[in-house]
Amino acid sequence: NAGYAGKTLYNGWAANNIKSKVTDAFATEILIIGFGLNDVANSDFTADKYLIELKKIVGYAISRNIVPIILTPNYNANEPWRSNYKLFATVINSIIEYCKADNILCVDVHKDLQKAFSSSTKVTTAFGYIAPDTLHYNNYGYGLVASSIVANLVANVFIVDDYTKITPEMGNIYRASEATTQYYNHNLAGIG
Question: Is the pTM of this model over 0.90?
Fold first, then answer.
């Protein structure tokens, strides 16, 4: 993801620049592809156009023996208030169905982060800690994205939230004198 205005997936910029921005710049065997949905507000945005452009990048990666891993767009607690909100679900479902049909690894980051934030009674306040401008993640937010990726790619890794039970066998997260099963306390350990 380019991370700045005008450099998007749906307008063709990503497919037109993948060679110079990715494969010429890095020697890679894996390409993690993740684009947001900020552009749903644009009048010419369509889910079909988004998916067509995503398929171009995946095809490019596969043609060079690079394994593509597709991320669903990041969760945003303000989605219901954004214009063209209904397209969020359409695009995310299209990505997941495409990956299933073509046997491409897909990490549903959106679902994982939405689940994590749904446990908060003040979702938008909690979301503000990882996206201070209510749209773009900070380092902590991208740490949560990384946790989602790792939890989906590596066996015996799981996403930790306020309701996750952790036993002593799962790791040294709390003092041995505490009960054998504890609810996760974010003050005692990191995410991931």
Answer: no
